[in-house]
Amino acid sequence: YKLADEVINRAVNVFELADGEALLAEALTTSGIVSSRRGRFTEAQKKLESASKIAERCSDYEGAGLALLVLAEELGDRLTHTEGLQLARRLRNLLATTQRRSLQVRVQESVTKLLSKNLRSS
């Protein structure tokens, strides 16, 4: 993961300079995954949230939702009650119209997990 982190961070820097927002959002999503797998959870969360905001700004709602889906899958257990509820709502909204069955299944599983975690902690 160390080498992956170095490479993806270089890609993020290039896309930031090149004004390629859609590619930047994808690179930040990948970087968030790598950060999470390296145990850098706060950094991962910031990158994934940034990726979602950038993709949404480009009207790439599926890309924005995918970044949040990764956030739910990678870091869902680390979120506060409020963060989990907000994330579940945003996931449903952004990926409500996706035609990709695999994404629909992942969203449903993640939302169910986020909501059940939040019910237990209430």
Describe this structure in words.
The chain is mainly α and 122 residues long. The protein is 83% helix and 0% strand. It has 6 helices and no strands. The protein starts with a helix and ends with a helix. The mean pLDDT is 91.
> Based on CA inertia axes, which overall geometry fits?
globular
- What structural class do you assign from the helix and strand content? mainly alpha
- Cα(first) to Cα(last) distance is 36 Å
> What do the pLDDT scores average to?
91
| Stretches with pLDDT under 50, minimum 5 residues | none
For the sheet with most strands, the description reads: none
Secondary-structure element order, N to C: HHHHHH
> How many strands appear in the DSSP assignment?
0
Please provide a brief summary of the model.
The protein is mainly α. It has helices at residues 2-18, 21-37, 41-57, 61-75, 81-94, 101-121.
Task: Outline the secondary-structure elements.
Blueprint: H1 2-18, H2 21-37, H3 41-57, H4 61-75, H5 81-94, H6 101-121
Helix pairs in contact: 1-2, 2-3, 2-4, 3-4, 4-5, 4-6, 5-6
List its salient traits.
single chain, 122 residues, 83% helix
